[in-house]
Amino acid sequence: MCEPPLHPDRSHIPGSLAALARWAVRRNRLVLAAAALFVVLTGLLSAGVSANLSSGGWLAENTPAAQVRNRLAQSPHGGMPPLLLLVRTTGSVDDPAARTAGTRLAEELRQVPGVTGVDSYWTGPLIPTNPARTPPSPPDPMLRAADGHAALVALWLDATEHVRHDATERVLVHAARPHRPLEIQAAGEAVVTREFQLHSEQDLLRTELLAMPVTLVLLLLIFGSMATAALPLAVGAVAITGTTAILRVLTTAAPVSTFALSLTTAVGLALAVDYSLFLVARYREEIAGGCPHPEAVITAVRTAGRTVAASAGVVAVSLLGLLLFPVPLMRSLGMAGISVVLLAAAASLLIVPAALACLGERRAGRDFLARRRQTARSAARWHSLASAVMRRPLAVLMLTGALLVLLALPFRDVNLGLSDERVLPAGSPVVTAAEDLRAGFPQVGTEVDVFLPGWRPASPGDADRLDTYARRLSELPGVQGLRTATGTYLDGKSVGDRCDTTAEPAVHRPCAGVRRFTLPTGTWLALNSAPRPYSAAAAHLLDTIRTQPAPAPALTGGATAELLDTRDVTFQRLPPALAVVVVATLALLLVFTRSLFLPFKALVINFLSLTATFGAMVYVFQQGHLRHLVGAFTVTGTTDLALPFIAFFLAFGLSMDYEILLLARVSEAYNRSRDTARATAEGLQAAAPLFTASAAVVLVVLLSLAATDVTDMKVIAVTVALSVLLDAVVIRPLMVPAVIKLAGAANWWLPSPLRRRLPLPSAPESLGHDTVETTASKPATDAPLVT
To answer: What is the number of domains present in the chain?
Structure first.
């Protein structure tokens, strides 16, 4: 196993890895010092990254609904207000004391920096840039509860995220002060975003505190010594701090989701363990076979390093699919994932050989050799399992396939929606305020915005057309009221006086709506919908609104439109995203395995496995079963649109990591024996201790994330954890050996033109028919991998 690479003229990658390993061994102290300096510098560069991360980014960009949201943001009272104050009093909101306190509150809030507009039951619309007092508006019944004990103060905020965040903080501080006889609760998108960000930061810290002690114990058990157990932590530190610094730089150019930081920590640590384990186990295997210490390090990088490089390529390619979706959340997760994967691979290929060279054979390999008999017995169990599976491959394949199909069945009932305040803990004040708001003001949060770009009712004829259009929309089933520049409408009739849209808005106070609903870029109408935003009835109403003839081509916005537009554009981008991932993965696996069947087998099994985990996602989180196993959360009856996509690409990459390791070991054994059944048993015996040990660490990290307060993060963590568990317990040890056994010689078939064009593997670990068996090769049973 210590021979130089075979066919060096056609084995560029392994030859390069060997050269890299030699350099790292010779310059081991320089490499370790450079890694430490890199961690310090990137840690300083990434300082304050949390304050610059975005809690939004869940909606697709450049859709009609997004255009409506952006255009209405130009108005001081455009669209749904992002911050609502639910004001209660023991008496009536029309009592003099309540009216005085409510008016004073609205007046004070419009002076808060970052507040662009205020609307209250007592004052009507107030604009900070127009401090001149105007005659009071008549009370707006839309902002008064039916019982008369509550009213609303609606606030519009600056669209810039950090300005909006600061304004929200100031408003909440002001609302917390005494305003007798009023009691105030805060709700709305801005408050939910703030609470979401606070919980995410707390959850990340809690995850690290929960996962780190258990992870350290596992690493010590897996690697067998403190010195080698520190290797994945060093690799993870480089990958995580480096990616965090990259995210800090990206925040200056584009929104980066706060989820990206959690993903960076989880994936960075998981892959750092994987890659370090692959290299250390291979090094110890070489030492057990009698290879001298320096050459064992180089051979480990030349052989297992190829697995690391291939794994990193496939995982990065799988996450590349997230960049093709026009959803900022998915893009930021894709960028974070790709960065941490590539950094983890690069760091492991440099730090691990340098550290092994620095530690020496006594410290790096001693503990492994001391426990060789025990690990040999453990590895033999995997050999026996694979042999038993291959005695009944069809039965095993049918049983495991039936299990996966059974788990996948609930996914048929998936109901895609968008997250709201219910992703926060049920006892949160924000959630309580939202529930009280829905009870007292059922019309709030159901608004459908219709925007007529480039059109304004500047003439009496235009006003008549707008009036006719508003009447038609207001009489649609499910519309509870409509407001626009010409007035307020209900059941096809105008309520109150009709506004003169050609007059100066300040002339007649009831027509202040002209200023609110007409913008330099167009005119808009606000409809209150009876159905809840993400329901089928709301979608049907939106489709009906879109078919109505309008004075100008109309765009629709609001929660329902944002969901449908984001869903449509996401599913439009799904085929090309999957095509990129599938084609690139097949190409990488084809080069790595020198087989046509094995890459397709890997993809099919992975897709089947992931579908099963999605069924569990729906069964547990959408339908609310087995809640006691994953912690408390609010069952909403919907699954956030982005979560299956994020979980798919993340779990796909981690699953392919284990697949590549198993294929490498199976093919190495096949090159020795030319016996598929024997090679499969020996390959599983060699690889299973590695991917089960890795899966244990990954599960600890993911399940610590599942203890978070934010349901969306809990969904991703539990779904990916289940995928990893299925992969380690069912897919690799049971289904894969069964499929390989049934395929027989087809596993290794490759057309002659491709065989001539593909580079030859260079080491016994490598794959393909052309590899020559080396004299130092030993059966896997003689060289267990992990303590």
So the answer is: 2
